[in-house]
Amino acid sequence: MAKTLNKLNPAGLRVVLVLQGGGALGAYQAGVYHALHEHGLVPDWVVGTSIGAINAALLAGNRTEDRLARLKQFWEKISHRDPTDMTRVSDQQRRSNIWLQTMDTLVRGVAGFFKPRPFSLFPAGFPVAPEQASFYDTSELGETLNELVDFDYLNAAGGIRLTVNALKVTCGSLTSFDNTERDITADHIRASGALPPGFPAVRIDGDLYWDGGLYSNTPLETVLDDSAGVDTLCFMVDLWAADGPEPTTLDEIATRQKDVTFASRSRRHIDDYVATHRMQQKMRALYRALPESAKTADSAKELAALGGDSILHIVRLPYAGRDWNMAAKDINFSKGSIEWRWDQGYQDALRAIKAAGWLSFVTQDTPLVVHELPPLELQRHDEADKAA
Hints:
Layout: E1 14-19, H1 27-38, E2 45-48, H2 51-60, H3 64-78, H4 91-108, E3 115-116, E4 136-137, H5 139-148, H6 151-155, E5 161-168, E6 174-178, H7 186-192, E7 202-204, E8 207-211, H8 220-224, E9 232-238, H9 250-262, H10 266-289, H11 297-305, E10 312-318, H12 335-355, E11 368-371, H13 376-387
Parallel strand pairs: 1-2, 1-9, 2-5, 9-10, 10-11
Antiparallel strand pairs: 3-4, 5-6, 5-8, 7-8
C-alpha cells in the first residue's frame, strides 16, 4: 500500500507501533494512536501483547477511516460508568469511586471482556479442563473482537502488518502470530491476553497458550529481530514503570512488584541490538576489504542475510499515571480513569510529535536512536522563547 509522505516522515520511514500488556492501562495506548492518526503517522506494523494485542487488532482489522471509531467503541464498551462526573469531585472521592469500581470488576467482571465462572470447581482446587482453568471466562472478548474487528480485512494483503505474542504453556517458549504468515483470528488475540489464573489458556492448533507478557511484556524484541534492514520509526508505549520510589506500605509493595514484573526490559534488548549491529557493520567492512579471489557467492549470500545498514528510531512513550499506588490499577475500568488515560496518551504523543527528534540528522553508521519525551517544563520554555 502506497504511503502518503508528510513533513513528519519525509524519508518514508517504516512506522511501527509497539504495545505492552497492561489491562485497563491500555487506554493510554489508544490515546497515543489517536495523536499519530491525526498527524498521518499511521503504522505499517503493529506489535502487541495482551491488551496491546487487542488494541493492535482493532487497528490492523479496520480501514484507516474506521480505526479511531472502533478503538473508542471498544473502550466505551468495557468501561464502567461512574456515578458522577469525576472531574467535579475531590481527590478522595475519586479514589473511593475507583476502589468501588475495581471491586465491582473483581465481582462481576467487565461486560464484553470477561465474566466470573460462578459454578466452577477451579477456585476450590479441583481439576478442570485446561480451557476452563481460570477464575474468569473470556468468551465475551471473542464476541467483541468479532464485532469490532474485520478479520477478513486484517488478513488480506496490503494492510497493516500485525504481530501478537503468546506463551506456549507446555514448553514456556514465546510464539509470534503474524498476519503475513498465517490468518489471525479472535482466538490468537485472546491467547495473547490469557493471563493466568484470572484468564484461561486458549488452544490454537492443538497447543495451549497464555499471555505473552509472562515471557516478555514489551514486544520490542520482535522488531529488533526483524531482518528486513529497513529504516524504521518505532513508537514504543510503556505502561509500567521500571523506576520508582522505595515502597513503605503493603499496597505500595504490591504495586512496585507488579511494575517491576511487567516493566519494559527494552534497555538490555537495545544494547544487545546495537552491539550486534556494530559487529555486522565490521563484518561487512572486513568482507569489502578482502581480495576478490577470496569472496564467494555463498559468503556474499550469508552476509546479505544478516541485513543491511539501517537506522531504527525508538520513540518511548511512558505512562506516568500515579493511580494512588493501587496494585489493581490494571483492572480499574472506571470510565473517568479510561478517559483520563486516553487523554494522557494523546497529550504525550503530541509532545513527542512536536519534538520530532527522529528528524534530526544522524550518521549512516548509527544503528539506533532512542528518543525520550521532552520534559514539560523545557517544552513550555521553548514555546515561550518562540512566542517572545
